[in-house]
């Protein structure tokens, strides 16, 4: 049996750890592994590379992906130059043909909801597919956690610790904008871990008055600085998410970004307290995975090879409690996993007096 592995969508800490685990455990069972370069672009264009034990040696702690990735290049709407014009055409048959020509039996797709949606469509066309849930956003259904999330939270927590000392010295409001797309997981976890006073997430549209009042209350108690974590997808009551730009060829063309600046401006005007904004951005995606993500990534890689050996396809490996299980791929991508209003950490945050903006 021959496996092909690709990493699709935004990169995240732990991708190399998964690739390594797939190659090492496949090797134990005598399976061959090929790498596909730059996500589905390589699948469409037939751009492959060998993945031997040697190729994955030493990559466990490395950030990024040795295969390269892209969050554009959807084979079902592939931007192709035809008669001098860029057109979006269905090139999914090229993917099937390229894999067949290389003798690949199984595609292991490491991705978030965009890449796994594409993988599901390829499975519907008869390809044997196994998905592995990746994203710092932690917004995939059917798994307790995606790999990469914990490391992103760790990075955001560290940023908050640093913002605390400068914010306190200058008696300022410090706003930290974190990633997460339409879900507030990174903001919620980092906010609690970093001792934020206000956490604003997309699931709870915020009331600016309430946020300002909570900061003024703190000021009256002698706390002359405040720390706010705002998820990039957060929005004011009655308002919209702030879109940075639209990116063509992407599964979801909307790229969020800019709510931190808006909130910072509005709050300074409202409260009269000097405010500074930091956008954490791609620091959350880069760098070495923490121990939790290395272990989770490794377990996902091993579980994917197990599923291939047992010929179970059209599934995604997932974390449930302490176990790695297999779930139908469509369950993972049917809808996004947002922070429920009864999430235990959200309730704990409220119990601590953290302002959630509602
Ligand atoms: O899905 C991961 C993520 O980092 C989101 O948190 C963010 O909104 C998006 O990707 C950014 O995408 P891009 O790499 O296109 O800037």
From TrEMBL:
Ranges where the Phosphofructokinase domain occurs: 2-307
Domain of life: Bacteria
Chain sites annotated for binding ATP: 10, 72-73, 112-115
Alphabetically ordered keywords of this record: ATP-binding, Cytoplasm, Glycolysis, Kinase, Magnesium, Metal-binding, Nucleotide-binding, Transferase
Pathway the protein acts in: Carbohydrate degradation; glycolysis; D-glyceraldehyde 3-phosphate and glycerone phosphate from D-glucose: step 3/4
One of the GO biological process terms: canonical glycolysis
UniProt-annotated binding residues for Mg(2+): 113
Active site per the UniProt annotation: 137
InterPro entries (UniProt xref): ATP_PFK (IPR022953), ATP_PFK_prok-type (IPR012003), Phosphofructokinase_dom (IPR000023), Phosphofructokinase_III (IPR012829), PKF_sf (IPR035966)
Main location: cytoplasm
HAMAP family referenced in this protein's UniProt entry, alphabetically: Phosphofructokinase_III
Family: Belongs to the phosphofructokinase type A (PFKA) family. Mixed-substrate PFK group III subfamily.
Name assigned to this protein: ATP-dependent 6-phosphofructokinase
Organism: Candidatus Desulfosporosinus infrequens
Lineage: Bacteria, Bacillati, Bacillota, Clostridia, Eubacteriales
Gene behind the chain: pfkA2
């Amino acid at each position: 049996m021959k496996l092909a592995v690709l990493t699709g969508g935004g990169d995240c800490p732990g991708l190399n750890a998964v690739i390594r685990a797939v190659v090492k455990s496949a090797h134990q069972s005598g399976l061959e592994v090929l790498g596909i370069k730059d996500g589905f672009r390589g699948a469409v264009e037939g751009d492959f590379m060998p993945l031997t034990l040697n190729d994955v040696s030493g990559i466990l702690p490395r950030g990024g992906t040795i295969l390269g990735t892209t969050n554009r290049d959807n084979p079902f709407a592939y931007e192709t130059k035809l008669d001098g014009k860029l057109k979006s055409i269905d090139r999914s048959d090229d993917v099937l043909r390229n894999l067949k020509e290389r003798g690949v039996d199984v595609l292991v797709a490491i991705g978030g909801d965009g890449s796994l949606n594409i993988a599901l469509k390829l499975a519907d066309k008869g390809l044997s597919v196994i998905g592995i849930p990746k994203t710092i956003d932690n917004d995939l259904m059917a798994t307790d956690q995606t790999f990469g999330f914990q490391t992103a939270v760790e990075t955001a927590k560290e940023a908050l610790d640093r913002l605390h000392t400068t914010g306190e010295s200058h008696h300022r409001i410090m706003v930290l904008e974190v990633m997460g797309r339409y879900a507030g997981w990174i903001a919620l976890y980092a906010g609690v871990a970093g001792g934020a006073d206000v956490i604003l997430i997309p699931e709870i549209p915020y009331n600016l008055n309430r946020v300002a009042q909570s900061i003024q209350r703190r000021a009256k108690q002698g706390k002359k600085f405040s720390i706010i974590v705002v998820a990039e997808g957060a929005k004011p009551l009655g308002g919209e998410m702030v879109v940075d730009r639209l990116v063509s060829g992407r599964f979801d063309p909307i790229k969020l970004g800019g709510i931190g600046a808006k909130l910072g401006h509005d709050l300074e005007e409202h409260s009269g307290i000097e405010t500074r904004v930091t956008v954490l951005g791609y620091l959350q995606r880069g760098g070495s995975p923490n121990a939790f993500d290395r272990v989770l990534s490794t377990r996902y890689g091993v579980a994917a090879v197990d599923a291939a050996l047992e010929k179970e396809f059209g599934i995604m490996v997932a974390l449930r409690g302490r176990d790695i299980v297999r779930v139908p791929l469509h369950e993972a991508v049917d809808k996004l996993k947002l922070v429920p209003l009864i999430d235990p950490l959200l309730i704990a945050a409220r119990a601590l007096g953290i302002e959630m903006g509602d």
